[in-house]
Amino acid sequence: MRVILVIAKNTFRETIRDRILYGILGFSLVYVAITYLLAKISLGDPVVLKSFGLAGIYFFGSIITIFLGASIIYKEIERRTLYFIFSKPVSRLQLVLGKFFGLFAAVTMTILIMAFVYFEVMFYSSGSFDTPALLAILFQILETGVLVALLVFFSTITTPLTATIIAVMALFGGHSFSSVLRTAHEIGGPLYGFVQSIYYLLPNLEKFDVRSAVVHGVSFSATSILITIAYAVCYATVLLSCANFFLKRKEL
Amino acid sequence: MIEVQNLTKSYGGRVVVDDLSLTVTTGSVFGFLGQNGSGKTTTIKMMVGISVPDGGSVRIGGKDSSDLSMREHIGFMPEAPYFYDRLTGLEFLEFCGKLFRKHRSEHAYSEILKQVGIYDARNRPINTYSKGMKQRLGFAQALVNDPNYIFLDEPLDGLDPLGRREIKNMIVDLKKRGKTIFFNSHILYDTEEICDEIGVIHEGRLLYVGGVKEFCKGQPLEKRFVATVEAKLITNNS
To answer: Where are the transmembrane segments (chain A) (predicted)?
Structure first.
């Protein structure tokens, strides 16, 4: 555990010193602040403010995650910084977990900074704290965990460009395959089986998208929240195990 | 003691290290010599546990190189090292030190940086370091756990004459402290000065292992090395 924490801390420190991170974060904060103006245009309708604010946090959070994660292991292999690490008492699994937790912590911090600005804007415009939005932020952090694990896995076996493309496809597919599956079910035949297999392979990111429901005041049971947390943990665990498997077999 | 037994490694069907066996006695300096692509770096990577051998074994201080606990007692400096550029020299050294079980104080890290001559630059980001300073930082991280066995891959590469002398002095000093040093180098003049024993590798096969004086037979090391490799090339061609 000590070694994982040391690597995570180092990854976190490296990540938060990335200048481009501040560029994207600054842009996202301006966007979230601007949603206040959108609320004014829409005659103070809180739904517009909440929808744009939470969507902005999600959009910029995903960009930051993909940008920082696509090369997280790849660059260590290419630049041979892994030589320093693996000549010390560090296993492949400890490296994978350390990289995961370090990047996850850095991305979570940026999401929380954006969320803080969002809650400030909400409080200033409506005079009350947007408590239900906390659930949307929590679920976004869970989705980010899955995305970070996906990027750690793909950056172990492929280039940053390919990892980026796959991550974007997984984001898109993960949010849209539920409806594709429903359509395929209506059509039936071998297509349904094919779509079903892809559906189970891809992360079901729709589980984490509670933004609309939160904005419209839909509540969630503790059980459904726990199931979503368990799903994120299980999916990330499988991806990180696969990353460890491939890294063990990789010639450095 | 470092014991290498029948070590073999292939990449894509090409044998890079072929049935290599050698022993390095505790407290000695061993120079591992060979042309570019002869298998020196692959051998050292298998010795420190970065690469897994296809066959054979490496035992360091009685422990197999695949044993993580063995790595508590070794230090390794890779060739032309790259670093985490956004960290400072001191942060990088602390990061490396904390990967070991034994806790070290900040004073200990400062002492190592003083030893390799980059203490004044300790709080500067590594991306502002010169090539020679990075080489010294690479050397520093290999000493961070006060290892008994030190593996250096081309430690004198990229250093100016003064820098080379300082590193050589450090190697001699480490030997005096009872450390065992194994290093790859193609700078043969320096090797001759500081080594107790050498190994000559060519196309993955060990051509010679033993004392420097016995190998040189009164001639300069570089001349004897070239003659040995050329003789092997002629044998292979005929």
So the answer is: 20-39, 51-74, 95-119, 131-154, 161-181, 225-247
Contact (Cβ atoms closer than 8 angstroms) between residue B89 and residue B129: yes
CB contact under 8 A, A87 and B50: yes
Q: Which two tokens stand for residue B57?
A: 């074994």
Q: For position B40, which CATH number holds?
A: 3.40.50.300
Rounded to an integer, the average pLDDT of A222-241 is: 93
Range of the domain at B220: 2-80+145-237
**What's the structural domain count of chain B?**
1
- Give A 3-32 residues with CB within 8 A of chain B: 3, 6-7, 10, 13-14, 17-18
**How far is it, in rounded angstroms, from Cα A6 to Cα A231?**
27
In this prediction, the residues of chain B whose per-residue pLDDT falls under 70 are none
Q: Would you list the domain boundaries of chain A?
A: 2-248
CB A139 within 8 A of CB A210: yes
Q: Which residues of B touch A20 (CB under 8 A)?
A: none
Q: Cα–Cα distance between A211 and A217 in angstroms, integer?
A: 10
Query: Is B152 within the bounds of a domain?
Result: yes
Please report residues of B whose CB lies closer than 8 A to that of A13.
Answer: 86-87, 91
> Can you tell me the distance from the alpha carbon of A83 to that of A103, in angstroms, rounded to the nearest whole number?
20
> What are A237's two structure tokens?
């665990």
Model pLDDT for residues A134-175, shown as the tens digit of each residue? 999 999 999 999 999 999 999 999 999 999 999 999 998 888
Does residue B127 sit within a domain?
Answer: no
Hey, what amino acid is at A77?
I
Q: If we measure between CA atoms, which residue out of A103, A117, A116 comes closest to residue A32?
A: A117
Per the domain annotation, does B113 fall within a domain? no
> pLDDT digits over A175-195, tens only?
888 888 888 888 878 888 888
Q: ipTM of this predicted complex?
A: 0.88
Residue-wise pLDDT tens digits, A24-65: 888 888 887 787 777 777 776 778 788 888 888 999 999 999
Which residue type sits at A239? Answer: L
What residue of B is the nearest CA neighbor of A79?
B82
Residue B70 corresponds to which tokens in the numbers above? 């063995």
pTM score of the predicted model: 0.89
CA A80 – CA A77 distance, rounded (Å): 5
Query: What gap in Å lies between CA A141 and CA A145, rounded to an integer?
Result: 6
Mean pLDDT (chain A, rounded): 88
| B160 in a structural domain | yes
